[in-house]
Automatic annotation (TrEMBL):
Source lineage: Eukaryota, Viridiplantae, Streptophyta, Embryophyta, Tracheophyta
Keyword terms of this UniProt record: Heme, Iron, Membrane, Metal-binding, Monooxygenase, Oxidoreductase, Transmembrane, Transmembrane helix
PANTHER family: CYTOCHROME P450 82C3-RELATED, CYTOCHROME P450 CYP81A1
Record protein name field: Cytochrome P450
Membrane spanning stretches: 6-23
Length: 486
């Protein structure tokens, strides 16, 4: 028996040595891009990275060039920092080769085992989800239909709530917490689009969030902050196994709460669909998609292909879209408002544009947007300076490939620093300055920006996001008036 243990131990040591030697030999033959020389044992270059990550990576690019190689724990990462390399990455075969997503254990539970649209690997399942999202839920036609009904209705309701709060406040000036209100706005618009479930508000004029928005915000905040803490797990599995701070338990609890919330929305929509069918005649599934919410559309697809459009599929897509869409639009709106309040000349010009095109007597609607080019320039300039996903979403190479002649082994992470690319002084004059005029009269035509990404995994929500943000900013006149009066 003793002899067996001895042989087994020697075999394991030999195998580890062999693996190590083979990997070293393989690495020696690889042509990797430059990167910091010193790497810590186990952690690699992780301790060199500071927050905000995009600025830290931009500093590394300034030292090492437009493509930098890093070792993040056991992972190899390639950071892209120039427009020409970003274009190379997202065209032709390379776009396919890097279309996977890295799977971090900290988000496994919240992402239905990485099956949500943002994290699914490139393949049949991703294609089905992506088709549902782009063709049935977020197409230009649906965004148009939604702008007329749910988006405009929710925005008007918000303006009325704000006016009520102002009237009730001393001196007619209400104090609002902008971040909360913008979150509530994006969130309630999206909830309406998903389920057409009217949100419930209390009669309290100070109440800036519906009951549902507050509940979902609590859940999203919990998941985001817990996943943030759990992030160290991704590089130190021992912490994950020991679950030292009970993060795993709390995360499971938050994810369960989210699932109950979304399943409740699905059940309510299913009931509504049944009532609609009863009204139109038994078994009639012939209603126009335009009248249905996103969940309604997926439930009618479920009727023809129940094995594909399962309740879990619908839950995963709804939870994912709600999370991504609310976070990104809220962040961008918040930056826009902050930039406007700090640049009153821009604010005044935007207000004049709206006053002369829309007038004082009514709230603007989607037909006004094409006549408000300066408002559009403001949104573009905000997205240039503060893209909501400054490193896009991380990509992963599914096969060995080459970027700019360098070897990128399968399994490597590819990060594209859109934040740095948008501030490249060879493309943008005075890139750090907030100057919406740079987009006026087609002046920025041909200049490269990628706030929504590029290629196969480009954001499918761009149309909807631009519409929500345009309409919301246009309706923020009340807030602007108060800011300019001060
Ligand atoms: C200002 C608003 C938004 C910005 C700046 C933004 C930006 C982005 C970026 C940079 C990506 C990653 C692209 C890549 O991996 O290369 C992305 C992916 C995605 N976005 Fe958005 N987004 C916004 C709003 C929305 C909205 C409103 C929705 C849906 C309602 C949405 C749904 C998604 C989804 C599902 C993906 C993953 C696509 C995939 O992996 O195939 N986004 N977005």
């Amino acid at each position: 028996m003793e002899r067996f243990y001895y042989v087994a131990a020697v075999t394991v040591v030999l195998l580890v040595l062999l693996h190590h030697l083979l990997m070293r030999r393989r690495k020696r033959h690889q042509r990797l891009p430059p990167g910091p020389r010193f790497a810590f044992p186990i952690l690699g270059h992780l301790p060199l990275l500071k927050k905000p990550l995009q600025s830290s990576l931009a500093d590394l690019a300034a030292r090492h060039g437009p493509i930098v190689h890093l070792r993040l724990g056991a992972r190899s990462a390639f950071v892209i920092g120039s427009a020409s390399l970003a274009k190379e990455c997202f065209s032709g075969e390379l776009d396919v080769a890097i279309a996977n997503r890295p799977h971090f254990p900290s988000v496994r539970e919240a992402s239905f085992d990485y099956s949500v649209l943002t994290l699914a690997n490139y393949g049949a399942h991703w294609r089905t989800m992506r088709r549902v999202a782009t063709v049935h839920l977020l197409s230009a036609h649906r965004v148009n239909v939604m702008s007329d009904s749910v988006i405009a209705r929710e925005l008007r309701a918000m303006v009325r709530r704000l006016a009520r709060a102002s009237a009730a406040a001393p001196g007619g000036v209400a104090r609002v917490e902008l971040k909360r209100r913008l979150f509530e706005l994006s969130h309630s618009v999206l909830m309406e689009i998903m389920a057409q479930t009217r949100n419930t508000y209390s009669d309290d004029a100070d109440e800036d969030m519906s009951k549902e928005a507050r509940e979902m915000k609590g859940i999203i905040d919990a998941i985001v902050s817990l996943a943030g803490v759990a992030n160290v797990w991704d590089y130190m599995p021992l912490l994950r196994w020991l679950d030292v701070y009970g993060v795993k338990r709390k995360l499971t609890d938050a994810v369960n709460r989210r699932n109950v919330f979304v399943y409740k929305m699905i059940d309510a929509e299913r009931e509504k669909l049944k009532q609609l069918e009863r009204k139109n005649g038994e078994g009639d599934a012939n209603h126009s998609d335009d009248k249905l919410s996103m969940i309604g559309v997926m439930l009618s697809l479920q009727k023809t292909e129940p094995d594909v459009y399962t309740d879990t599929f619908i839950n995963a897509l709804v939870a994912n879209l709600l999370g991504v869409a609310t976070e990104t639009t809220t962040t961008t709106l918040e930056w826009t408002m902050a930039l406007l309040l700090n640049h009153t000349d821009v604010l005044k010009k935007a207000q004049e544009e709206i006053d002369s095109n829309v007038g004082e007597g009514r709230l603007l609607d989607k037909n006004d947007l094409p006549h408000l080019p300066y408002l559009h320039c403001i949104i573009n300039e905000t997205l240039r300076l503060y893209p909501a996903a400054p490193l896009l979403l991380p990509h992963e190479a599914s096969t060995d490939c080459k970027i700019h002649g360098y070897d990128v082994p399968a399994g490597s992470m590819v990060l594209v620093n859109a934040y740095a690319i948008h501030r490249d002084p060879t493309i943008w004059e005075d890139p750090e300055e907030f100057r919406p005029e740079r987009f006026e009269h087609g002046k920025a035509e041909g200049k490269f920006m990628m706030p929504f990404g590029m290629g196969r995994r480009k954001c499918p929500g761009e149309n909807l996001a631009m519409r929500i943000m345009g309409l919301d900013l246009g309706m923020e006149r009340l807030t602007w008036q108060q800011a300019l009066a001060r």
